[in-house]
Amino acid sequence: MDRVRQQTERLSALFRDAGAVPVETSVLQPADTLLDLYGEDIRARAYVTSDPVLGEQMLRPDFTVPVVQRHMADGAEPARYTYQGLVFRKQEAGTGRASEYLQVGYEVFDRSDPASADAEVFALFAEALQGAPVQAETGDIGVLIAAVAGLSTTERRRAALLRHLWRPGRFRALLERFSQALTRVIPSVRAEVPEIGMRSVAEVEARLVALREDAQTAPLDAVELRALQAVLEVSDMAPIALAQLREIAQDLPAIKPALDRFEARLAALAKRGVDVDALPFSGTYGRTTMEYYDGFVFGFHAGNPVPVATGGRYDALTRVLGQGREIPAVGGVIRPELLEALL
Amino acid sequence: MIKLGIPSKGRLMEDTFAWFAARGVTLARTGSDREYAAEVSGVDGVSLVLLSAGEIPRELAAGRIHLGVTGTDMVREKMPLWFEKTETLAEMGFGHADLIIAVPNFWVDVETVDDLDAAAAAFRKEHGFRLRIATKYHRLVREYLQKHGVADYQLVDSQGATEGTVANLTAEAVADITSTGATLEANHLRMLSDGPILASQATLFASKVADWTDCDLAGLTRVLGLENTDIG
């Protein structure tokens, strides 16, 4: 236990030395914010409790949301924060995973140079984990988002795909459906059936219109579809992966700006002494985690399915929680208990 | 002594009595109608415990009863790792009920769980909150919707009269047990066409965590004409 405490202290000191201000957050967090953000899945994963005055509360399942809220409320820019403490996650019975565990985190809110901020966080984590038998993995959700946003199809289809980017099964099913001509017979509203509930007949009509329009939509372009699938299949050391993505961009030019950001990040990483030639990149990395990362994603693994450290860029989250304001943000957490177990 | 837990009232209790009677084992309540005591004849070494059907999974999981009769739906909803804690001895052929998702009948645009997902996205945009599904089967419904990649919904708890929640504006859709569909129809609801989340029936479960010392399970399964099962 003492070693874990020392490890936690060491990480926290490292993050403070890097310029982070220590912050604390409540263990009890309002459930509605988290539910709105993560959806019903979080209810299966977080401990929900109720308070007669505060209403439904959750034992914090992560620090990111309260730290972002705090920054959006009264933070000066740029800002670097660090925190340490327990988070609580229900685990499926039989997995043996801890349901409460320590996290030490580092978050950067800085709009000046995103590539440099990405590199700063990654390099700091690599330094913190030096000597531990861990392997870094990286990805870029931003490339994936750009690939979908660049498909030449209807806005509705792009939105449907983007919405399910984090659910690979559903995403694949949508791609399949959008690649074929539709045969579905679209019904009409029947006046004799009573209208009940809050979803109105107008909303049903609106969706029928959408379905009819969709039935007229041409299948996805085969070249673009192949390009999108190729993006998902990229898995190599970062510079080679980038070269492969550049190839793919010939068929899907919309990903070029995201690739420029990827390239700038690699340069920034190299500048900080990271050996990018030995840094694995995968087109799907980070895709099944919590759905707030929207750019660079990384993790440090040690054979175990649960990574020792994870992080990434979450610009969109600050937009959601900032009520109109936003700031580019990147950060991550290390789990000192898992790290200590490796040493 | 084998402790057998069975539902303490209603149709499920009567059908359970009949199922055992057909196999030469008589279960009977003793004392007054209101007293929850019972006796067993036709086989030795079995004592009867009358319980609410909803409590039987908990008692099986705790090993306080060796055998229990309850619906598959109850066991799967209330018992994490049910497959490690129980063994199915017999599906009893009654108490059939399907756990289904139903939407208002006038939603002609929603036939499948796929459509429900798309409708939920549009609903959230329009109303500013996630489409509500009323149920008491939180675990089963959530697992099902997660597996099918449905987003933008929320579960609201409803322990009874679930079919009324849509008309009462406390939910947009329901997930509940139905056997004939008559209650759904009366409430202007229609089930999705993908098939049930779970097809449930009354089932005789054995607890794998109970202490089986001095229990003659082989003797009982022989009398009941069931396959011999090695528990624990």
Automatic annotation (TrEMBL), chain A:
GO molecular function: ATP phosphoribosyltransferase activity; histidine-tRNA ligase activity
Annotated L-histidine binding sites: 62-64, 89, 103, 107, 287, 292-293
Keyword Glycosyltransferase on entry: yes
GO biological process, one term: histidyl-tRNA aminoacylation
The protein's name in its UniProt record: ATP phosphoribosyltransferase regulatory subunit
Source species, domain of life: Bacteria
Organism: Litoreibacter arenae DSM 19593
Keyword terms of this UniProt record: Glycosyltransferase, Transferase
GO annotations of cellular component type: cytoplasm
PANTHER family per record: HISTIDINE--TRNA LIGASE, MITOCHONDRIAL-RELATED, HISTIDYL-TRNA SYNTHETASE
UniProtKB/TrEMBL annotation, chain B:
GO CC field: cytoplasm
Name this protein carries in UniProt: ATP phosphoribosyltransferase
Known EC number: 2.4.2.17
Domain of life: Bacteria
Boundaries of every ATP phosphoribosyltransferase catalytic domain copy: 53-211
Catalysed reaction equations from the record: 1-(5-phospho-beta-D-ribosyl)-ATP + diphosphate = 5-phospho-alpha-D-ribose 1-diphosphate + ATP
Key words of the record: Amino-acid biosynthesis, Glycosyltransferase, Histidine biosynthesis, Transferase
Pfam families for the chain: HisG
InterPro entries in the record: ATP_PRibTrfase_cat, ATP_PRibTrfase_HisG
Pathway terms, separated by semicolons: Amino-acid biosynthesis; L-histidine biosynthesis; L-histidine from 5-phospho-alpha-D-ribose 1-diphosphate: step 1/9
Family annotation (CDD domains): PBP2_HisGL3
Function field: Catalyzes the condensation of ATP and 5-phosphoribose 1-diphosphate to form N'-(5'-phosphoribosyl)-ATP (PR-ATP). Has a crucial role in the pathway because the rate of histidine biosynthesis seems to be controlled primarily by regulation of HisG enzymatic activity.
Entry-linked SUPFAM superfamilies: Periplasmic binding protein-like II
GO molecular function: ATP phosphoribosyltransferase activity
Single Gene Ontology BP annotation: L-histidine biosynthetic process
